[in-house]
Structures are given as C-alpha cells and as structure tokens.
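Worked Example 4.2. Consider the chain below.
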Amino acid sequence: MAKQFYKAKYLLPVCRPVIENAGILVEEGKIIQVGKIEDFLNHEIENAEVVDFEESIILPGLVNAHTHLEYSALGKLTTKSMIDFLWQTIEQTAGWNENKIRDSVKTGIKQSLDCGVVAVGDISRWGISPLVISDYTLLADVALEAFSYDAKSSEKVFELLINKIEYIKGKTRDNVRLSISPHSPYNSDPRLWELMIDYSTSNDMLIHTHLAESLEEKNWFEFGSSEIDNLHSLINWPKITPQITSMSPVEYLSTMQLLSPNLLAAHLCFASSRDLELLEDQNVAVIVCPRSNLALHNKMLEYSLLKSLKIKPILATDSIGSTGNINLLEDVRLYSSKNVIGFEELAKLVTIYPAKALRLDDKIGTLENGKQATFIVFENVDEPANWFYPTKPSAVYINGEPVVNKVSTKG
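Applying the procedure from the previous section yields the following structure tokens:
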C-alpha cells in the first residue's frame, strides 16, 4: 500500500495542542508522522497520495463507550418514567427474531459511522451485536448482559453467560472483544457481581453496568422499596430487597466490595460527591449520557463535580430508545452547553478517555506516530473551538481506509 499524506487547515491530535496547516503521513494504515506541513521533507512525502481537505479540521475518530446497538430499530420511546421505559423496551422487543435484531444492529453501526464513531462499548442483551459488528471495521468491546434475583439464579445465569462467551469468541474477529455486564445493582444479585468480578479479573475483561441512574434506584437502596418493585413484578421476579439499605447504590456496591477497576459505570445522574470519591478510589470509569439522562431523569452528572477528582468523564449516547438516534455529536453539543469546558478537553471526553477505558488507546484516541490512521474530518470549521458544531463529519477513516467520504478532495 502506498503512502498517503492528508492535509487540512487544522489538526486536533488530542495528545498535543491544535496544529494549523497540518498534515498526517500514513503508511499501511498506520500514522508515521504528524505535524505542520512545512515540517515534512520532500523525500518523506515523495510518491505519497496527497489528499487535501483544505478548510477542514481533522480529529481522532470518536468513541461511544455506552451503546445498545441491538435496540437501534426500536425508535424513541415516549415516557419520562424509568420503569415504564424499561418495560416498554422489554415489551416492544419481545417478538424480535434474530434477523430483526441483526438488522437493528446494522442500523446502529451505520448511524455510528456516519457521525464519526469508530469504536463502541456496547451492551448486548441477546449476544447478536458482537457477531454483526465482527463483519465491519468498527472496533468494539461488547458486554454480554445478565440479570439475576438471588444467589441460586446467579449461579445458573453465570454458567449460561460463560457458555455464550465461549460460543461467540469462536465466531468473531479481532475487532471485537467481549466483556460482561451485570445490568445494575437492582437487577443483578450480589452473587452474580462476585462471579463476574472474579471472572473479569482472571480473564482481564471489562465489566459494564448502569449505576445510580434514576431516583427509583436511589430510593430502592435508601428505603428498601420503590417503583423498581413494580418492574420486578412485571418480569415475574419474586420480591427482592437490597441486602443493606440506607445508602446510595454506589455505597452499596462499595460496602459489598463489588467495585472493581475493571468497571465502567454509566449514567450516575444521582451520584453524590462521596459516591464519586468511592469510584475514584477504585479507578472506575464514569460515563455520562447527556441526552438520555435529561430525557429520562431531567438530570445529568455535571462536569464541575469531577474537576477536582482524577476521574476523566466519558460522554456516550445510550440507546436510541431514549435519544431517537445515536449521534454522539449531539451529546457533545448538549454537554458543552450545560458545562464550562474547553474545546480540547471536550474532545478528550469522546476520544482518548473512552479509548483508555475500553483499553483501545494503543490503537485509537489520539493522532500520533504508531497509532491507527483512524480519524474524522469536519468541513468548513472556521476555528478549532467549533469542531463539534457540524452535524456529522464529511469523512471517516479507519486504518487509513475511508468508510464515509462525502467531501471532494484533491492532490
């Protein structure tokens, strides 16, 4: 494969300040040099294919660390009740067959690539999304989701989960890595958490969960009862209560010694400063889904709560059921409008921070020598601080190959 030399007015590498009149030299899908155009010697770009994006800005590809691609055909659900939202999701997908789910995942992948997302942290209910993603160039860490209501059911659920993991491993390519997901502390018994933490530690595997997301969840752990009991009844579970009450969901997991450095915790709308300190102590990754959080809870975790901590927040979309689409740029714009945060730091929330959390930062997340030539291009951006205002990128490259290209380029 010949060399390619990509030029643009601006380059936001994320690992260093913005470069003006910049270029990226690529060979065999890898970045071999980044810098100002004048820094490249003639012999370095000799025989390279030159692609000039002119009045554009180039960034690393975006990373959406919390998705539910299997629900992408669901459409936005109309409700402001968390319990009703979960029940509608269950009801409306009850009749879906494998072909329907596969098509739904393909819809989610297309939307992801169109908005510049090159990697996802996906939650899989049926174990189908990793099989579909494997046919694409998208990178993914896919967590197989599990639920349980007591220790006995946890043992059975965990055995089935491990069997599913082994089956899927034999049918996916190396762009897909598998992980596990106890859905939440109120839908997964502590015994299931224990089994998953032990397994994830032994297998160097991530754990994804939903945590401190709703008022119903907060009340369930504080008082031992809430509208969550209605959800458990709807799915024909026996009456269950937290093993310990009068504490937050995060404090509960901490007290039960169920927080892990392998954990990625999504939402945290109702997390307190103390909760965040507990998560920081265990190096838990914190994911905010701005549009979903405001739509379902009229609340989201504010950046100001995290500034004094070592936590590097991550922005993600959640499922189409709560947002109507999975265009991560819409969440970037919303979070920017609600928080005081610099444009370069904002870029990190959807590039290097989630890449590190998903353990993909050796490949993507920044534009620097040795990493994949995986990047996105926004046309007609008047200054770097406005990089996230376009509705979608004009070009998306993965491993040096265009997967979306709507801009005219010239050598």
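The two ends are 17 Å apart (CA to CA). Residues 407-411 have pLDDT under 50 and may be disordered. Compare this with Example 4.1 before moving on.
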